[in-house]
Amino acid sequence: MTESRVTDLRSVALNLPDLKQAEDFYTRVWQLDVVARGPEAIYLRGTGRDHHILSLHRAEKPSLRSVTFRARSAETLKSIAASAVEAGGRVVSPLAPSDDPAGGQALTIADKDGRVLRFVHGDATHGEARVVRDRPGRLSHIVLNSHNTAEAQAFLERVMGLKLSDRTRIMAFLRCNSDHHCLALHDSDGNTLNHIAFEMPDLDSVMRGGGRLSEAGFPIVWGPGRHGPGNNAFNYFVDPFGFAIEYTAEVQKVDDSYKVGGPDDWKWPPGRIDHWGISAPPAPRLKEAQRAIFFAPV
């Protein structure tokens, strides 16, 4: 496929008021491992190669601190910075050595709606990825709400080189590699976080993860099911701080021959909201969580 300026979604940073509680949930329940600590932050890895896929930062109230993508090259970082300004965004932190434990070079930008995006190159990794039953390997994708999806999509396409995979009645799915999407935009009246998706090894791991979370007091709030665009299996949950999070697996692989679908291609029969048709609609708790978390101001 045509190369984008980024190779993959690397990590997400969350601001939280209680790091001890957050660490307990994301290690004991969600099944990530602590890989590094700072005075006011904890860095967690999956079983994949990424140094960390989630960082937890102490703050007064929950918010989305930033979303980090891996840039294709050091030169690409410069192109991203220039394009962000040309497209109406701004550079929050210019290109410099990264201040997180993965190292490398980093750049932080924001679009005009306050979405904070980091880009890194040359960051440390963990050698070969491991596949471990029932444990997340990497981030699959992130979904952001947008009051103007066409404008946000145009910014991401121009700055990052993302490509549209599908446009449904309410969502635009964008990709940077062979995964159907690494980021999606959800039509909304606010620019908030919709959810963060963690990739599990297989369908059984998604299902057993649902059982583990339910036993720990975090019931499935949507699922199990299989999405239309992306064809990925899913179970959704809400973490102790109100973040919507997903276990997913079997995301569709695509290339430049993939036919971009439109709203008419993604219509479900009455009463159906996924391929399987066995799940109840998203619980009110999930819908609330999908509108409650904003990007932290920068």
What do you see in this structure?
There is one protein chain. This protein is globular. The protein contains five helices and 16 strands. The protein has two domains: 116 residues, 2,3-Dihydroxybiphenyl 1,2-Dioxygenase, domain 1; 155 residues, Roll (2,3-Dihydroxybiphenyl 1,2-Dioxygenase, domain 1). Strand 6 and strand 7 form a beta hairpin. The chain has 298 residues and is of the alpha+beta class. The strands form two sheets. The protein has an eight-stranded mixed sheet, with helices on one face. Helices cover 19% and strands 35% of the residues.
Under the CATH scheme, which class of the largest domain? Alpha Beta
Note the overall shape. Answer: globular
Helical percentage:
10-25%
* CATH fourth-tier homologous superfamily of the largest domain: 2,3-Dihydroxybiphenyl 1,2-Dioxygenase, domain 1
In what range is the share of β-strand residues? 25-35%
**Would you identify the regions where 5 or more consecutive residues have pLDDT less than 50?**
none
The biggest sheet, with number of strands, parallel, antiparallel or mixed sense and barrel status, is: 8 strands, mixed
Number of discrete helical segments: 5
Task: Order the strands across the largest sheet as they lie in space.
Answer: 2-3-4-1-5-8-7-6
- The end-to-end distance, rounded to whole angstroms, is 34 Å
Helix/strand/pairing category: alpha+beta
DSSP E strands, number = 16
Average pLDDT, rounded to a whole number, is: 97
Tell me the radius of gyration.
18 Å
- Taken together, the total number of domains comes to 2
- What is the succession of H and E elements? EHEEEEHEEEEHEEEEHEEEH
